[in-house]
Design brief:
The protein is α+β, with helices and mostly antiparallel strands. The chain has two helices and four strands; from the N terminus they run ββαββα. The chain is globular, with a radius of gyration of 12 Å.
Length: 89
């Protein structure tokens, strides 16, 4: 995600969870009524070691693990966050 692009957090989205050898059955493909909900689920529910290899697709745009975190911690993110900061330095 480069620059400031208008993101439609209300558009439907699909989550393709990443794989990790310890968490092979953690999550499966899911559809969400909004991008915001898909992002929230990825960050708040999936194990940290699965998030980097996960992908969310919305309006024919694919977001990798890093982009999903950027969406979640963006000032434009519309839902209440369980985490206040990204923890990244």
């Amino acid at each position: 995600m480069k620059g400031h692009v208008m993101i439609d957090y209300n558009a439907s989205a699909e989550l393709f969870p990443g794989r990790h050898f310890k968490h092979l059955r953690v999550a499966r493909y899911q559809r969400f009524p909004s991008l915001a909900e898909a992002v929230q689920y990825t960050i708040e529910e999936l194990p940290l070691n699965v998030q980097p290899s996960s992908m969310v697709e919305s309006e024919e745009v694919r977001y990798d693990g890093k982009a999903i975190r950027q969406l979640y911690f963006s000032h434009d993110y519309p839902l209440r966050r369980a985490f206040a900061t990204s923890g990244a330095s």
